[in-house]
Amino acid sequence: MLKRKTYRKWNSRIAEAICTVFSFIAVLALVIIVYYVFQRGFQVISWSFFTSLPAPVGQTGGGIGNAIVGSLVMVSLGTLCSVPIGMAAAIYLYENPYSRLALVTRFANKVLTGIPTLIIGLYIYILIVLRIGSYSALAGSISLAVVMLPIITLSAEEMLRLVPESWRDASLALGATRRQTIMRVVLPASAGGLTVGVMLAVATAAGQTAPVLLTALSSRFWLASLGQPSASLPVLIYTYAVSPFTDWQNQAWGAALSLIIFIFILNISAQVFIALRQRR
Amino acid sequence: MRSLKERIIAVFFSLNGITAILILLGIFYLLLSGSFLAWRDIGFFDFLFGRTWNPTGFHSASYGILPLVMSTLMVTAGATVIAVPLGVACAAYLAEVASPWEREIVKPVIEMLAGVPSVVIGFFGLVVLNRLIARTFSLSNGLNALNGAVLLALMALPTIISIAEDALTMVPTEYKEASLALGANRWQTLRLVIFPAAASGVSAAIMLGIGRAIGETMTVIMATGNAIAWPRSMFQSVRTMTATIAIELGEVAYNTTHYYALFAVGFVLFAITFLVNLSADLFLQRSSEVTRR
Amino acid sequence: MENSVKIVTEKLNLYYGNFQALKEVNLEVCSGKVTALIGPSGCGKSTFLRSLNRLNDLIDSVRVEGEVRIDGENIYDKSCDVVRLRKKVGMVFQKANPFPKSIYENVAYGPRIHGVRDKKVLDRIVEKSLREAALWEEVKDNLSRSALRLSGGQQQRLCIARVLAVEPEVVLMDEPTSALDPIATQKIEDLIRALKQKFTIVIVTHNMQQAARVSDITAFFLNGEIVEVGNTGLLFTQPVDQRTEDYITGKFG
Lengths: 280, 293, 253
What we know:
The complex is a heterotrimer of chains A (280), B (293) and C (253).
Chain A: H1 2-42, H2 47-51, H3 65-95, H4 100-114, H5 117-132, H6 137-162, H7 165-173, H8 178-189, H9 191-206, H10 210-215, H11 233-241, H12 246-279
Helix pairs in contact in A: 1-12, 3-6, 3-9, 3-11, 4-6, 5-6, 6-9, 7-8, 9-12, 11-12
Chain B: H1 4-17, H2 19-42, H3 44-49, E1 53-54, E2 62-63, H4 66-97, H5 100-115, H6 118-137, H7 145-169, H8 173-181, H9 186-197, H10 199-215, H11 218-223, H12 241-249, H13 257-292
Antiparallel strand pairs in B: 1-2
Chain C: E1 5-16, E2 19-30, E3 34-38, H1 45-52, E4 62-70, E5 73-74, H2 82-88, E6 89-92, H3 103-113, H4 119-132, H5 136-139, H6 152-164, E7 170-174, H7 182-195, E8 200-204, H8 208-214, E9 217-222, E10 225-231, H9 232-237, H10 242-248
């Protein structure tokens, strides 16, 4: 009887150990990747790296300035488009949680988050790039907006629902309409959570390559207008990484480092914020 | 008594709400209509079951999607084999074994792993994993299905872990307490009570992870070698559906069969990920019904 | 203020889906008096209270039959403006729920949503309401402080001020002191006694001593029905119905 119990106890211990080890493998993976990117990328980055244009093909030197600007512009524009629509959609879902339209909308948003972003890029390529006749930063922005929209909508609805019902009841009991209650109580109360959702959507958009590649292509010059192709960090990383030039590969590491630092800052801020709220 | 203004505002909000529906329908329609044009020329079954993808063939072009599908499946299967045990074990660790401070460290790290862009992970595979695999298995280069599988596993891990962990923690503590009170230890409780109760949620997590892997583009482009071939081993260079679309779209001429064939590949990809996500959603709904008891 | 009938419920029935929570409730509430609703948990007193400002509308499965007439108008009539109703009939909740805003903004919320924009007018209303709620002296120095920083008793008085700011005629209170300590409770009970001259007050309480201290009329609810209603003093000393006497003497509840 005792032997079986010990056997079970050791089984349990081994299983727990395996779980722990596996988890640390996952942690280790991230550490290794980040270490590599830091190590290779750190040597390359400098102020001029961030602010200069790429050098002519074949020459060494130059920087990723236009890619940074391109990414900034397209991500910002994408955010500007998707946030109002996403918030309005979230408010609609919050006001009518059980209507048939709401169920379909929620489902559509969930599906949209699972679709390969390549397909979204293909869609905008057909819709806009072919219509206008050229790759453009505008098309890139819109493809990023489509990527961001469902993320923002779904997380915003969740944040709105987290607002305690008692505040909603109190507002309605004072004679406020549903709309006034949402605008003046629920929305302000959930502002922090909503911001976190947007930050995470921005982080996702910043790292997207496929949709931007298919819609904005790339460029070796400063962005002159929204109707022209544009460079972007992820596309630059890809182009340089697969190229045969060592100098370009080094620059790719620098660009990769810049990109993940930006994304990590957003991610960490979001997590810190969530942790603070839970502590309250 | 809703004023006209209230009603206009309500309609405005609902229009925003249906934007996602419109986008989804638009994708479906555009891809499908392009696919029809392709299937008209190629033949639906030749497309779906053809064993050769050679659109720029000199004598005759063939548009069989099967090698692409097989490549995608092979890389995804490899990723699943790696990511599922790791991910589920990690979820179990976070939900049951880890102490609060351990959780505080591991959870954020997993979230950050989720944030690493696919192009950076692909870069890592292109340079680092490439040499590692080549050296370990004495190959000329390490750009193959194995490379892609490992990287896709890294990308699917955070999805699997976070959703599976949610499912495990949502199991009512009453089940756990009842099991422990009967004398079971933690592992038995986990295996016999918690996991079965969370089965739907964990399945959903795995499916969503797989869905993520299937839809990845940049990672596989950079790491799998991109040679169109019928995949026979993990050490072989393969080309997935996503890679095909991304690479060939830039080279193809407008309005040709090849052009529409890419739409068709996109449609198949869309359909597969749609179905995977749909099933995952159904499993998640079932899981929330179970735990609401 | 003349003691006239303010609220009349006639054959009020309320169903949550198939469950009947209120059965043929007929009650008259007079202005200028405090009416207490007592009874064991789940007897329907809170449900009844929420019927008076139609807050039950928020629950999907609720069905209401019968009439509730306030100043002669049936509030369940299709033509009734719920927004105006809730301005007239205010509610204070069991757990104080001030908005995550400043003290000033909490009190100014009601007037603002009803259209008041002038800052001077709002200032005046805020001060008046806080004075009426016996909170002004304690908070007047820093109205921009977050309302969540106040103590439980102060928060509840703030919620009362918030209700008073929209100048209601009726104030409904759903167990307003059940989450408060004795001293805070006493302050609120004093407040209720002061307010009854200007307002019609209906208070739900599970604390019989409180009902005895504070109210003029008491109604005893049991299983969704009113068993007995009458002058508070008489009800507690000479209850007519045996069930009332059993509840008062603690045989159940």
